[in-house]
Design goal:
This protein is an alpha/beta fold. 33% of the residues lie in helices and 18% in strands. It folds into two domains: 203 residues, Alpha-Beta Complex (DHBP synthase), CATH 3.90.870; 114 residues, 3-Layer(aba) Sandwich (Rossmann fold), CATH 3.40.50.11030. The longest helix is centred in the last third of the chain and has 17 residues. The structure holds threonylcarbamoyladenylate (TXA) and magnesium ion.
C-alpha cells in the first residue's frame, strides 16, 4: 500500500479494486498523471474520469458548491456505488475532466480502494481498468490481460462484489438526472430525496439523436468479438427461440455461445450430443437474483472472447431496478441486436 501510494504521488498508474469494477488510478490533481490514463486505455480524450475520494469533506476542496440533495445522497450511499457530478474549481485539471467544467466524484466502498486513495493523497482519478471498448475488469487477472507492460502495479482484491459500474447522478443541469444506471436504482434515489428524478434520455439508446451528457455513454462498449444478440420476450417464448437459434447455428456449422441464468441453461445441457457439442454454455448468475447476474456479466463476456464461438445468444432481463443497469450494458455489448421471441 505504501508503494502504491508512492507510485501515485510520483504520477504513476496503479490499478485497484473497488466494489463495482477495478479502477485504473492516478493522482486526479496532476494533469500529466491523468494523461497517462488515457494513453494506457486508448481512451478518447473527451471522455472524463471519475475522481475517487476517501472522506466526505474532500469534495469541498475540488467543487464550487455541493447542493443539499447531493449531501443527502452522499449520506445515504457513500461509501458506495454512486457517482455525482458538480461544477469543478481550478484544483481539478481539464485533463482529468476531458475539458468539461464539471467533475464526477465518488467514494468507493472497498477497504483497499479507500486505503489506496488515502496513501496517494486523497484524490484518485480512475476509469474502469480495461482497454477502451472491452468489458470492465471484475478480476485482477482481467486488468493484467489489458494492462500488462503498461502500468507498474495492480492491487489484487479478488473478484469484485457488484460487477457493473456505479450509478452516475448529475447535479449540474436544470434537473437532477441519472446519466448511467447502476446498482443504486432510480427508486432508491427518489426515496432518499423524496422527489422524482429523470433518466437522461440518451441512456437507453432508443433515440439515436439524443446526445448523452456522460460522454462515455456514446462509445461502443463491452463488445465481445463474436456477434452477440439478445433474445427478448415471455419466458417460454425465449426458451423456444433460444433453443431453435442454437440448433440452427450448429446445423450451419457454427459454434454457438449461450449466456443464460443457471436455471435456463438446463434446457441446453440436455440437448442431443450432435447439437450439444457445438454449444458453449456460460452461466450468468441465477434467475431470482439480479445482483448475481450483474456480478458475472463482464466475466462471461470476457470468457467468450477466449472461446472460438461465431455467435452468442443471451437471455435478456427486466428493464427495472438493477435489471435496468444490466440491460444498459447488455444492449451496448450486443450493438443493439435484439431478437423478439414472441
Ligand atoms: O464504478 C465506477 O464508476 C468505476 C470504478 C472504477 O469506480 N469507474 C468507471 O469509470 O466506470 P469510467 O471512466 O469507465 O466511466 C466513467 C463515466 C463515463 O461514462 C464518463 O463519460 C462519465 O463517467 N463522466 C465522468 N465525468 C463526468 C462529468 N463531469 N460529466 C458527465 N459524465 C462524466
Ligand atoms: Mg469504463
Amino acid at each position: 500500500m505504501e508503494l502504491a501510494g508512492h507510485l501515485a504521488q510520483q504520477g504513476e498508474l496503479v490499478a485497484f479494486p473497488t466494489e463495482t469494477v477495478y479502477g485504473l488510478g492516478a493522482d486526479a490533481l496532476n494533469k500529466e498523471a491523468s494523461k497517462k490514463i488515457y494513453a494506457a486505455k486508448g481512451r478518447p480524450s473527451d471522455n472524463p474520469l471519475i475522481v475517487h475520494v476517501a472522506d466526505f469533506d474532500a469534495i469541498h476542496k475540488i467543487v464550487k458548491e455541493v447542493p443539499q440533495d447531493a449531501e443527502k445522497l452522499a449520506k445515504a450511499f457513500w461509501p458506495g456505488p454512486l457517482t455525482m457530478t458538480f461544477f469543478k474549481n481550478d484544483q481539478v485539471p481539464d485533463e482529468t475532466t476531458g475539458g468539461l467544467n464539471t467533475v464526477a466524484i465518488r467514494m468507493p466502498n472497498h477497504k483497499v480502494a479507500l486505503e489506496f486513495i488515502r496513501a496517494a493523497g486523497g484524490y484518485i482519478a480512475a476509469p474502469s481498468a480495461n482497454t477502451s471498448g472491452r468489458p470492465s475488469p471484475t478480476l485482477a487477472e482481467h486488468v493484467y490481460e489489458d494492462m500488462k507492460g503498461k502500468i507498474p502495479m495492480i492491487l489484487d482484491g479478488g473478484q469484485v462484489g457488484i460487477g457493473i459500474e456505479s450509478t452516475i447522478v448529475d447535479f449540474t443541469g436544470d434537473e437532477i438526472s441519472i446519466l448511467r444506471p447502476g446498482y443504486i436504482t432510480k427508486e432508491m434515489i427518489e426515496k432518499v430525496l423524496d422527489k422524482k428524478i429523470i433518466i437522461d434520455p440518451a441512456v437507453d439508446g432508443s433515440d439515436p439523436n439524443a446526445k448523452p451528457k456522460a460522454p462515455g455513454m456514446k462509445y461502443r462498449h463491452y463488445a465481445p468479438k463474436a456477434s452477440l444478440s439478445l433474445v427478448e420476450g415471455s419466458s417460454d417464448a425465449v426458451r423456444e427461440k433460444m433453443l431453435s437459434l442454437a440448433k440452427e447455428a450448429v446445423a450451419n456449422g457454427q459454434r454457438c455461445g449461450i449466456m443464460a441464468t443457471k436455471e435456463r441453461l438446463k434446457d441446453f445441457e440436455n440437448l442431443d450430443e450432435s447439437i450439444r457439442k457445438g454449444l458453449v454454455l456460460k452461466e450468468l448468475g441465477h434467475e431470482d437474483d439480479e445482483a448475481s447476474v450483474a456480478r458475472e456479466l463482464y466475466l462471461v463476456l470476457r470468457e467468450f472472447d477466449k472461446e472460438e464461438v461465431h455467435v452468442i445468444y443471451s437471455e435478456s432481463f427486466a428493464d427495472e431496478g438493477v435489471g435496468k443497469a444490466i440491460m444498459n450494458r447488455l444492449i451496448r455489448a450486443a450493438g443493439h441486436q435484439v431478437i423478439k421471441a414472441d
